[in-house]
Amino acid sequence: MRKLYEEYVMSITPLTPIHIGSGETLMPGDYFIFREDGSYALYAIDIGYLSSKLSKGRDVLCKWVLDDPIGWVKKASKNTKFTALVKKHARFCSLVSDAVAEGITSRWGQGTSMLEISTFQRSGRTLVVPGASIKGALRTALLYRAVQKPLQVPDSTKQQDVSRWERKVLGSKSDSIQDDILRHLRISDASAEDLQTVVLNVEHVGMRTQSGEQAQLTDYRECLPGALQPGFERGTLRAVFQISSGHPHYAQCRGELTRQLILDACRLFYGDVIRAEREYWRGNQKVLQLYDELSKEMEASPESAPIRLGWGVGMGAIGLNLAKREGKHPRGRIDPRYRYSPRTRRIMDGLYPPGWAIFTLEAI
Length: 364
Description:
α6 crosses α9 (about 260-280). This protein has about 375 residues and is an alpha+beta fold. β3 and β4 form a beta hairpin. The protein is globular and about 70 Å long. The protein folds into 2 domains: about 5-20 and about 125-364, no CATH class; about 30-95, no CATH class. It has 10 helices and 16 strands.
C-alpha cells in the first residue's frame, strides 16, 4: 500500500546569526546586563511579576522609579539583592557581545538612547523558527528553479495576479489558491531547545544621511549564533518535514515535490545569492573571506543544502530578483522588469551577513 506522505527530520544548522523577530522589544528596565565569568549576560524580566516578589522592597523600587524614571535602572543594577532577584526570576537569559554590552552600559540610565532590543521568537521558553518562514524560503528557491531565465514578469504586478502566476509556474493543478502544489508540503516549527541566543549589534551598510555620510544607527537584536562565529558551538534546530506525495490531489498536479528536487533548488538559488552577495562586497576582504567559509561549509556537506532565514536577508534573496534581466531603472522609480541591486546590506557584529544556514532531510 502506497504511503500518503513522505516524512523527514529537517535539521538546520545556523552558519551566521539568525534573527526571527517575536514583535517584542525590550527597554531598559525590561532587561539588565551583568558581567559573568568574563563575558556579559542579559536577563529579561517582567517588572510587575518581579515587584510582587520583593515584599517590603516593593516600596523601595517604586520610590526609585518615581524619583528618577530613567536613571533608576542604573541604581537598581548596582543593588546586589535586586540583581539576585532579577537573575532568579528572569523570563529568559541571553549572551551579549562585548560590543553591545559596552555600548549599552556606557549609556545605561542616561536617557541618551532608547536602547531597544528586538527579541527572538519563542514558544514558552523554547526558541522556534516558524515553519511558515522555512516554507517561504523553500518556495522562493523552487520558484527560481522553475522559471525561465531571464525572467519575463507577469502582465500584472497585482499581488493576486502574481500569486496565480506563481502557482502556474510551480506546476499546481490550477492557478487557484486551493490547488497550490505547496499545500502538499508541511513543515512544523523548528525548535532549538539546546541553543543559547546572543544579542548583537547591526550595521546598516550603505544607508546614508542626507549629507551623503554613512548613517550611524543603533540596532540590537537577539539572534541564534552561527557556527562561523568564534566562541560558539555548532547548534541544530529540528522540524518535521512532510511531502504528501500519495495524496490523490497531488497526482493531478503538473509539477512535483521531492526531497531531491527541494535540495537541488536550494543549492541553485542560494548559490546564486552567494555569488550576488560576493559581487556587492567586492573590495571588502573580511566579508569576502566569510563567504569563502560559507562556500567551504556547503562543499564539505554534499548531503545538505543552503538556506537563508529571518530578518535582514537582503533583496537578492527575495522573490525572483536574481532571475530578472539587467536594465536601467527610471529616476526615482523601480521598474519591476529589471533586476534591482540595493546599496544597503545588514551586517551583524561588524562582520556577519545574517540568516545563512545549511539543512538536511533525513527519512524517518
